[in-house]
Hints:
By secondary structure, the protein is an alpha/beta fold.
Amino acid sequence: MPPNARKPAVRGRRLARALWRLGRVYWASADAKAGAVLLLGAVALELATVWTHVLIADANRLIFDALEQKHAEAFFRAIGFFLALGVIFVLASTYRIFLRQTLEMRWRQSLTAHFVSRWMGSQAYLESKLHGGEIDNPDQRIQEDVRDFVASALGLSLSLLAAIATLVSFGGLLWRLSSDWPVRLAGQEFHVPGLMMWVAGLYAIFSMWVTHLLGRRLVPINFDRLRIEADFRYGLVRFRDNVEPVALSHGETVERKSAFARFAHVIRNWFQLIRAQRNLSLLTTGLGYANDMVPVLAAAPAYFAHLITLGNLVQIRLAYGHVSGSLIWFVNAYQEIARWRASIERLASFSDVMDESERELAVREIALVTSAGDRLALENLRLEAPGGRVLLEVASARVDPGERIVVTGPSGSGKTVLLRTIAGVWPFGSGRIELPRRECLHFVPERPYLPLGTLRAVASFPSEEGSFEDESIREALGALGLAQLAGRLDEVEPWDQLLTDAEKQRVALARVLLHAPDWVFLDKATSALDEVTEARVYELLAERLPRAALVTAAHRPNVARFHTREWRLRMRGDGPASLEAA
Length: 582
């Protein structure tokens, strides 16, 4: 078993709570009324399909009785009845699937929006935790697990409803047809009311028992399959996104071995799955095949004794098939139930992790408040690692509008953590931070994010594409030495792979010129630039944004000359850093 594998634990009350929670997302939403109409329509058509099955069974009785009696007129009348029922059945069966699939997509849309909003709406540190091994493949859980959960929830519930309706509809018919049969044992006759119903019930109980004994391993195997397949796919995506650094370090052999190692887990899990499915299929197929002969063998003595007609025998066989099928619904649905349980477990654990993170945010001791004077002030700020280790001793400092502050200190002293705390994405610690209005702030990390889409969308981020005139975007790119990209605004490319680190940083700085914020925070945002280009960047910021406050975290000492004050982080051995605000 691969590392970090975890067995599903959703059982009993926890399963019910997870189902309630996942179902409530849609059925408490604004689209629930439309969904209820679709669900009622699907239920009505499901019941109509069962009703036509009952009438089709009766039509079969009429057809075979007419054949037995060689009554041509009754035969063709029964055939006409059968064909009319066929039209109703085809329409009802087709549109019940259409309504179910329509509801499935609306439910999936709502549940996907819920998880995407929670995942992407949370702060960056949450994403880091999710990808850091606390929970695997959140992207796959949102895409695949949500899809499978919704499809199985509707499919299983509607098929169970159909099974119950079938049992009620055909159960009474089967009971009535087999109510007067004598059963001969050891030369004596016994009357067993509803004999065929008892036969169907006992056969179903036996089938469910042996199916559960053999098939219960499918739940943990399916849980592992979803995670292992996603791990393999994620590894390939990471390689695709980092082809150049891997090639430069000649690390293809290591990456290839890692990919094969992850795929080996896929192969191992696959053979576990198909062996379990093979054993279950052998059982269910054998039980189903034997079950086809049970009603004929049980009813044959009554037919030979002239207690029932050939039409009755055919009707009994059809009714028994439907009743038996409804009673062994659990057997037929077992594999889908196993997959559904795995999806519920993964979505429930995903929600639990996000709940935990939201609780951490709710009880955060670092208070972020909007400053009445449009300033930045740190008051008794203390920063910690998630485990509680102190990173920065209690510190206080202040930045007024228009000031230019450089944050210096050795690697690992906490410059990035300090800026992340000011940005509101590091909740660990205590103290108070007064911030200017959020819409006035613009943060530029060392490794900027380039979204998928056109170069226009990349340059406009975090604003939407179309927020800026194309001429303004071209001018900003040209000012940062990217004139060669100015004519490619409409092109859709993997820009994160196409551009060098220096070009990515210059694109991010072009965004600053476009947005013209009142407060700019640069976290080693010029580290990939040469000193001449770096100097040009700070000159541009001073020229284009003369009234903007600038807070820069940097390693290079020559960056300090573009700022008016310095915040110095000093390390004391292995202890926390201290802040000296000059």
